[in-house]
């Protein structure tokens, strides 16, 4: 899950820098390297002097750049947490299990949205960096149209074959009605969701990060208000949770669309936005294909996890996994916010060949990341029943979730370091290494573990796969970092 979120927001913040650099005229291939951008952050935004990235105290910079991102990421994670809490107490244990069944489909929903939103936000930033406002406007129009097309195609096909898809994802006769009731509403609202996310990404990328963050805040507040009304007062159950989510996103969509209709906006929606050019479509999809494929990979892993849980623990095990996922994602999101603040600092100093500051930023970020995930580790290990009971009042589910949490987070402190190191490589333009490190946990370690360990340990084997994969993913990240640092010392012994 964290992989999906990481790519979605990293792309937005990375390429959003171009918007703040109107003097840059960069070719597309150069844009892919973050440190290339930072080398050219000279005399480009006098109101927000980039030189401080090379002179100001690292700790102060990290706080200034990370806090807004952490707030935004935390707000985003509240969607899932709020839904789970209200469903757990208002619908019951099977509702939680049914919600967990929908995780793979939700990952696919994000994937088909990201392929457009990531590409659109990136290219719009590039166009503005080249002072091509008309080109950025074209990209905005294409993004809106492609979001709608993707939403109707993906949402329509998924809606028609929903039962078959959910059974393939691990639904039983008991959990299928809950998963179906939730996803039917979500899929009907896909055009709203895609439009909100796609245009919100462009809003962020074109110089309105605070306004984009407010979009998330507005939708979350609306969800908090509407969910209990629909679930408890109207008695709509899990459909009420989904309805609250869609209505909240509709409000967010109105907010975003109104922004791009205002004359004060740098880029605005134009009449005839449905007229599309093959060249722009190709560019959008080519950029968005990487996060799309990684989201699909995450979806495949969750499908395997759900089916393994169904086989060795039944519906309750899937519900327990859903609770664990919600708990851990919150801390992962905070770490991702930290890395988003780390990226411009590392990128600028790497481009300026100030390797001591690069190392200092990395060390502080790793330490902070480990502290964040260690906090989650301590709370969940000491109070597994209490944190599980937040999501449900079912005693059996609480017991199973508690055991799963205790085993599954055994190596969770190391996750903070692994995420930071992976994002460090992205910050210095080593995208391939970053993607490799992001996939190691899922493909290289978790997948074989899911095949082998449950055969000998049953349900505990599935929980054990998680800390084992976390440990080996951490070791892999450390080795990759060590190799790179040694290489850097050989190439630039004086600066390093």
Overall helicity: over 70%
**Main beta-sheet strand count, sense and barrel state:** none
* Number of beta-strand segments: 0
| Cα radius of gyration in angstroms | 22 Å
| DSSP summary: helix tally | 20
Number of domains: 1
Task: Identify the overall geometry.
Answer: globular
Strand content is: under 5%
Structural class comes to mainly alpha
Uncertain segments are: 1-48
- Compute the separation of the termini in Å: 35 Å
Element pattern in H and E: HHHHHHHHHHHHHHHHHHHH
What does the average pLDDT come to?
A: 81
Could you explain how this protein is built, in words?
This protein has 496 residues and is mostly helical. The chain has one domain. Helix content is 82%, strand content 0%. It has 20 helices and no strands. Helix 1 (2-19) packs parallel to helix 6 (103-129), helix 5 (93-101) crosses helix 9 (176-188) and helix 11 (209-233) packs antiparallel against helix 12. The longest helix is centred in the C-terminal third of the chain and has 38 residues, at 314-351.
In short:
82% of the residues lie in helices and 0% in strands. It has helices at 2-19, 28-31, 34-39, 58-90, 93-101, 103-129, 133-160, 162-168, 176-188, 190-205, 209-233, 238-261, 278-312, 314-351, 355-382, 384-389, 395-408, 412-427, 431-457, 459-491.
Mind sketching the topology for me?
Elements (H helix, E strand, L loop, with lengths): L1 H18 L8 H4 L2 H6 L18 H33 L2 H9 L1 H27 L3 H28 L1 H7 L7 H13 L1 H16 L3 H25 L4 H24 L16 H35 L1 H38 L3 H28 L1 H6 L5 H14 L3 H16 L3 H27 L1 H33 L5
Helix pairs in contact: 1-6, 1-10, 1-13, 1-14, 4-5, 4-11, 4-12, 4-14, 5-9, 5-14, 6-7, 6-10, 6-13, 7-9, 7-10, 8-9, 9-12, 10-11, 10-12, 11-12, 13-14, 13-19, 14-15, 14-17, 14-18, 15-18, 17-20, 18-19, 18-20, 19-20
